[in-house]
Amino acid sequence: MVSDGFNILLMVMLPFLSIKLVKNVPLFSKISPVLLCYGVGIIFANIPDYRVNEPQITKLFEFAVILAIPMLLFNARINDWKNLAGKSLLSFILGVIAVLFSALTFPLLFKDLPNISTLSGMLTGVYVGGTPNMQAVGIALEADHNTFIKLNAAEVASGGIYLLVLASGFQQLVLKVLNPYHSDIHQNEDQAESDVPYTEVKPKYALVNILLSLGLTGLVLLFSKLLYGDLQHPIFIMIGITTISLWASFSHKIHSLPGGYATGEYFLLIFCTGIGLLADFSEMFSGSLDLILFTGGLMVMSILLHIVLCYFFKIDADNMIIGSTATIFGPAFIGQITGILKNKELLVPGMIMSLMGLAIANYLGVMVAKILVNFIL
Questions:
Q1: Which of 40, 163, 213, 347 has its CA 20 to 30 A from that of 222?
Q2: What is the pLDDT of residue 189?
């Protein structure tokens, strides 16, 4: 048995150790800190009798993501985003189309799986938006709580494998099919230097960025409390935090403040460690094998179809991957993947597309379930 304090210490310190290993030890130089944090978390989670306080870990990594988003966006070059919007938006639309087509056709192979139309609708929710959408679609379709638990476990397993693939060289595989990313944005030396991932930050600058992020986040949470009477509206909170952070980036003092992006990356690594600590494979694979195969198969089909569509529409590899991340994972993962791609330019488009996914996923999930029931199955 281990104490809850050890898990918290692991989440806070492992990102620091991972960055040091990647930067200073040749053996780890080709590995992303994201992969190290996620992988170590998984290893600990699957040690026999290793105890994880799931509610505590979940609250901590959710808090880390909420704090990270403003810091990732403080240095965003909004005026340059118009040069990227076309391909990013098209990649996102193609990703949504791929999910919809997969969700409407893949169930034909699993007709005997109970509640297949509901499962497909819920997976549409999570693969276009995020976990809150899966739960919302499930409620709309009157799915029982046990169905949500089993489907969520299967989705976490499938998504975890895809995240490992993304962190382990997926970009190079996609580049065999799609063209490399080409930037139309001119960068000066200072901008280029600021885009280097996991740069060291002076403590005073890190503290200022964290305090600014806390302040903006606090404002959004206050608005949520005033509007709804609670803090149980994640879509409003995520959209609010992103919007107010982009607004803050227009301030010259905030935009030019050193260390914002790097400090945000550190908090995302805390998130990665936490996600890994919840990846208990024995719990994930305790459900129906058909459910696991259906969940993973639908995701794989949508990703492959997305790549094919991007090929015909001449979308580059980086935009395809960010579009896929925006749909399959959502806003919490955009910062990590842009870091893996070493392409900070796609951070703002990726965040906006993923928030669009959160906004439309509930409608699409219910629509898919109804179409399956009334016209296909």
A1: 347
A2: 44
Cα–Cα dist 12/6, whole Å: 10
Distance of CA 268 to the CA centre of its chain: 10
pLDDT for 142 beyond 80: yes
Task: Kindly state whether residue 249 falls inside one of the protein's structural domains.
Answer: yes
Q: Please give the model's pTM, rounded to 2 decimal places.
A: 0.75
**Once rounded to an integer, what is the mean pLDDT over residues 346-358?**
84
CB 335 within 8 A of CB 264: yes
| Residue 20 included in any domain | no
Say if 45 falls within a structural domain. no
What per-residue confidence (pLDDT) applies to 170? Answer: 93
CB 318 within 8 A of CB 345: no
Q: Give how many domains the chain has, as a whole number.
A: 1
pLDDT value, residue 39? 84
Domain boundaries, position 365: 73-181+196-265+275-376
Structure tokens at 92: 């996102």
Task: Kindly state whether residue 31 falls inside one of the protein's structural domains.
Answer: no
Q: Minimal CA–CA distance to 287: which of 148, 161, 108, 165?
A: 148
